């Protein structure tokens, strides 16, 4: 008796017609029937139960970031384009707008979402404390 088994797929293929391609780590052959990779370890750029999905299918980009599969680039094999105020591989880090030290002339920076605020010294004003207040260099500003 001759039984044609799906296990006769060539290495690296699986499925009823041997048309599905395995994407296992180090090109190890997957299960010829189910497509499962040994230890469920996928090759770079492939994810999912049987390593047939691209990383973006798992929506890795947080905070409404846009995901683009970039299989040639690694090591994460996807690139997130973040919305305003967010950064990081998965757009899960809130940008510290004070990191660039935008407040001039001794002003104190306070980080906020997608913006920052400068608290200026008595002698300066402006968004970045870049404007010197006329006459502020003189003593006694409390006249009035
Ligand atoms: Ca911020």
TrEMBL record:
EGF-like domain boundaries: 52-92, 94-130
Keyword Signal: yes
CDD domains linked: EGF_CA
One MF term in the entry's GO annotations: calcium ion binding
SMART domains, A to Z: EGF (SM00181), EGF_CA (SM00179)
Protein keywords: Disulfide bond, EGF-like domain, Glycoprotein, Repeat, Signal
Disulfide bond positions: 82-91, 120-129
Stored PANTHER family: CRUMBS FAMILY MEMBER
Protein's recorded name: Fibropellin-1-like
Phylogenetic placement of the source organism: Eukaryota, Metazoa, Chordata, Cephalochordata, Leptocardii
Gene that this sequence comes from: LOC118430810
């Amino acid at each position: 008796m001759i039984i044609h088994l799906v296990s006769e797929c060539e290495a690296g293929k699986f499925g009823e017609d041997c048309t599905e391609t395995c994407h296992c780590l180090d090109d190890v052959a997957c299960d010829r029937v189910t497509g499962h990779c040994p230890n469920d370890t996928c090759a770079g750029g492939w994810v999912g139960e049987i390593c047939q999905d691209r990383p973006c299918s798992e929506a890795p980009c947080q905070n409404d970031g846009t995901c683009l599969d970039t299989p040639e680039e690694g090591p994460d094999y996807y690139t997130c384009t973040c919305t305003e105020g967010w950064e990081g591989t998965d757009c899960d880090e809130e940008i510290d707008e004070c990191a660039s030290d935008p407040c001039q002339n001794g002003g104190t920076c306070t980080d906020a979402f997608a913006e920052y605020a400068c608290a200026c010294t008595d002698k300066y004003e402006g968004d970045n404390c870049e404007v010197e207040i006329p006459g502020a260099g003189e003593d006694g500003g409390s006249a009035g």
